[in-house]
Structures are given as C-alpha cells and as structure tokens.
Amino acid sequence: MSGGLPGLSATGAVLGLLAGAGLWLALLGVPALARPSLDARLAPHLRDRPRGSRLLAPGRAPASAAARLLGTAPGGLLAPLARLAVRRSPSSAAVVRRLQQAGSTATLEHHRAEQVLWGVVGAGAGLLLAAAVVARGTPLLAAAALVPLGATAGVLARDQALTRAVRRREDRLLAELPTVAELLALAVGAGEGAVGALDRVARSCRGELSGELATTLADARAGTPLVQALARLGERTSAEPLARFVAGIAVAVERGSPLAEVLAAQAADVRQLARRRLVETGGRKELLMVVPVVFLVLPVTVLFAVFPGLAVLRLTP
Fold first, then answer.
1. How far apart are CA 281 and CA 120, in angstroms?
2. How far is Cα 79 from Cα 240, in angstroms, rounded to an integer?
3. In the chain, what is the straight-line distance between the N-terminal and C-terminal CA atoms, in Å?
4. For residue 208, how many other CB atoms are within 10 A of its CB?
5. pLDDT (tens digit, 9 = 90+) per residue, 214-265?
C-alpha cells in the first residue's frame, strides 16, 4: 500500500490543479467579475469611423454559447492569447484565405482562439498522460515532454480540421458545378444577360455554389463591376475547375464575346470533368475493394485449404 501512495498523490495533485484552474476560469467569466481592460474602454473613442455603409460589410456569425463559455468569442478569456497568436503568426493571410475557401464566417482572431483552446485541451490531455506514466515509474523529465507534445498536437489538429473543411466544401462545389453550368447556359441561351442568368440560377438552386453566386451578385449590385466580382469569386475558392469557369465568364463579359457560346463550351468542359472525376473515384474505390479481399478473404481461403492437410499430417504416426 505504501508503494502506491506517491502515484496517487501525484494524480490527486494534477486533478486538483485542473479543478482549481477550471474554477478560476469560470469565476473570471462571471460578468460581475470580468472588468473590461483599458484598451477595451478606450477603443470606441479612438477607433476610426467606418467610411462605408455597414450594410455592405461582410457579415459575422454570432458567437455560440460554447464559444462564449470557453472564451473563444471576441472579448472572451482567450481573446488576448488569440490576438497575440495573430500578431506572432507569419501565415495570417493564408489562414484568412483558407477560412474563405471553407465558407466560414469566423474571423482570424476567432480561429486563433480556437487553436489556443485546442492546444490547451491537448496540453491537459498530455498532463494527465504524464501523471499516469509518472505513477508507473517513468522519469519526470521524460513525462513532462508529453505536455508540449499534446499542445502541439491540439494546434495541428485544429489546422487539419480546417483543411478537411476546405476539401469537403471544394467537393460540394465541384459536385454542383455541372448543374449550375447547364442552367447558366440555358438561361443565357433563352435571352438572359449575365447578371440576369446569375440571379435566376442563384434563386433557383440551393447549395454552396448558389450561395457564392448570390454573394457575387450582391457585390455587383453594391457597385463593384461584374468582372471584378467574378474575380473575387475565383479567389474565394480553391477548386481550380470552378476558378477556370468563372474566369471564362469574366473574360466573355469583359471582351463582349457571345456569352451563350462561351457558357455552352464551359458546360461541355465541366461535363467532361465530371465524367473524369467519376472514373477516378471509381478507380480509387476499386483499389479499396481489393484490400479486404487480399487481407481477409484470401488468408481465410488459404487457411481452409491448408488446415485439412496439416490435420492429416498430425494424425499420421
């Protein structure tokens, strides 16, 4: 019994430290105790007056209850750490672009706050694991390395989650592109102009691409030239086929080319691309289907074929 007391005391100390830190963070989140900083009090008086209409400003998603509770919302507990990460990070522009490509309305500061939160969770998991291995006799210095490793893993996991979100949205955009291209070609062929065709398709369809078309139309109606609004649409996506499709429409509008012929050719290219993607997907699925055959069915078949002979050899004297 006496040999297990140091491990239990270390585990109890770690759990007490985590409980105390959680209680302290909860108390700091109480509105009566959370005093605004000097920067927060002076910011409304020193901030420049916006020069444009707020109706044309990009929307910002309201902070969720979990974000307010965990401190990842603007003005939360992790906001100072998020601002520090934004200032120290050399890849802020790339992260903003990836957030746009993922279709997220979160700001860079909110994303950095989430990264800090994921890092804290990873560090906590590493601390618990370190306490467990120290209780089993592992040296303290070797176990302490698990804490920064856990924090790094948490930050990288949030970055990978953003990458997966970008990839999933790109797949949805490419899946909707053939239908949207056909509808645009039909609308222009029926006599609609570029703006009218985009408006009709944006109102008729539901999905990621129709939302991007609606955003492009909002930019054009706010005073941005249509060619520039289409260029912004190409910048907001990481799907190269969609960027080429939008660039073709922008070039046709800018140079006065027959838009119906251009859209018909673009729709044909998009259909060929969809067929090629289906063939590539089928090839990858075919390779995945070979895996259970090789590693499950074939060994069982060989076992059933060899086992009777082995049994006979064992029975013969």
1. 38
2. 35
3. 56
4. 19
5. 888 888 888 888 888 888 888 888 778 888 888 888 888 888 777 778 778 8
